[in-house]
Amino acid sequence: MRKLFAVLMIAAVAFSAFAGGRQSSSGGSGGGTAGSGTTAAPAGSSTLNQLGLEQVNGIYRFRQTQTITVEVFDRGLDGGRSKPEDNFYTKWIQAGMLRDHNVQVIFKPVPRWTEVDELNNMLAAGTAPDICVTYNYATIQSYANMGGVTDLNPYVNRYQEFFPSLWEWLGDECINYNLDPVTGNLWGIMAKMSNPTRINTFIREDWLKKLNIPVPTTLDAFYKALVAFRDNAGTLLGANARMMIPFSHSFDVGWRAEHLLQSFIPGNINDRDFFVYSIDDYNLARPSSVAGETAAKSAARVLNRWYNENLTWKDFALYGEGDTTEDNLLKSGYIGAFIHNWDYPWRNGNDSILAAMKKLAGSDADYIAITPFKDDAGMAQKYGYTLTGVNLFFPASNKNPIAGLLYLDWITKQENLGFLQFGEEGVTHTTTSSGAVQTITAAGDKIQNSPNNVDYTLTINGIKMPTLDLTIKSMALAYTGIDSSYIEAGYYASAEPRRIMGRPIVGEIASESGMAQIIKDKRNALFAQSITASAANFDAVWNAGYRDLMNSGGQAIIDERIAKWKQFYGDKTSVR
Predict the structure, then answer these.
(1) DSSP string covering 337-377
(2) Domains of the chain from N-terminus onward
(3) The sheet that has 199-204: what strands, in order across it?
């Protein structure tokens, strides 16, 4: 009965919202992308009374104290991190929300590396936080289909006036990113990345210098550098020569070899093909410049060759999410090159990979970001849609969506965002004469558990400064003990060139429901089995695993995406 009542309530809210003034698909607040939400009139006293709000000094505030729970990633306590749900910054947020909006905030930690599994369990049990965070939209859609997610369209679009900072930052494009053009449902809004950084390819600069090898700028040159590392292990590692790993990647090959994989995507790929073959959150099914293959297979073939030539980490498939074995190998100075988050060797201050490596491998040990993987047009291309971050959604158990949206608006206000990202002047940062912000290593409770507190600044990924130049300089100054020129070079290596693909608005892809984890597991197994196969068996192993993945739902997703494209875009190959 409780479940039936919840579903009926969701339906009633959705119906009242549509009856109350949902505009045609050409309406909207941010220039009118197809399917955008309504532009509401200013709230009157009756609306405020209905929602239990009052306006105090221009701020909307609940007359009676409300309570919401907010998901926060738990990254563990290593490196001096504080409790993610109870620290200096959570207390600051709680005090500010209670003061400004009369909303009490309780943080609910979720393990970062198993967040999808944990979120599924909480949604199924009805214990999910009022504000949930995930990179996996398919999880949201699956529970939305069962009545377990709140439709945000009647709230975020109808009451825009209440959330000015949220709308100013995210705009129509991110807020209504997932708006269904047919049903009008909006199950989640997208955060926005302020900096288009993603991943980088890193190589030991000191090893290149010691062996007199130029910085690799092509796949072949990169391969030859790995061979040189292997063949000169004694020179580079001395007594630890047997520990030599020229190139490393984890079990998560789709992410950890993304630059290599994307280099096989044809430079002339169109919006249609980029969309149709997006069966997962990486590039598994997208076409390759090698005839008859996918880009993922072409990349896996390269990794298979390297594996069989003893150029890669042999144990990559044995360690799962959250395991620190590879990090320890990096810190020990045994790895010559790897692909990871754009700033991975430099992050975490005195506990960074680079800091630890210098202690063990010498002060001259350094990683630099390089761009050796070029496509058939000679570009080290990075593909993507709009610079979005995590998905933010409210489960159906959220009793007060307005309070949740006021929370997202509050953390997006520039003064609140600035404090969360940089902390106190003179304590956790100083401002340089150029206007850039220099981070001071925090101690005790004021340490940030994630870079610039991204786990709390949910609507923004990356720092936000008045200009790009100040942003990059401030980013570079945030890394304790690291030459800022390395960070600036790393930024540009990760961000440029970047091709923003046109994203079609087609609504739900029903065949994706419940498939995210299945495809992820099969994708990881496919990479592991094919990369570790003998060179002679590579094609057979890949083809069998890929066929199984397609038969297990992958092909159905492609077929539905083809049908959806035809429904909304006909014979066009571009959304523009």
Answers:
(1) EEEEETTTTT-SGGGSHHHHHHHHH-TT--EEEE-----TT
(2) 2-194+388-415 (3.40.190.10), 199-384+502-569 (3.40.190.10)
(3) 245-248, 335-341, 199-204, 367-370
Single-letter amino acid, residue 256:
R
Is the pTM above the cut of 0.85? no
Retrieve residue 450's tokens: 């994630």
Q: What is the rounded (10 degree) CA torsion for 226, 229, 232, 234?
A: -140
Angle between helices 88-101 and 414-422 (to 10 degrees): 170
Summarised one tens digit per residue, pLDDT across range 508-525 is: 899 998 898 899 999 999
Residues in the chain: 576
Kindly report the number of other CB atoms within 10 A of residue 52's CB atom: 15
Residues 539-545: contacts with CB within 8 Å, 24+ apart?
Answer: 542/297, 542/300, 542/301
Q: How confident is the model at residue 451 (pLDDT cuts 50, 70, 90)?
A: confident
- H or E stretch covering 118: helix 115-125
Tell me the per-residue pLDDT of 365-401, one tens digit each, with 9 for 90 and over: 999 999 999 999 999 999 887 788 899 999 999 999 9
**Does the pLDDT value for residue 349 go beyond 80?**
no
* Structure tokens, 388: 């979005």
Amino acid at 412: T
* Integer Rg of the chain from CA: 25
pLDDT tens digit sequence for 201-221: 999 999 999 999 999 999 999
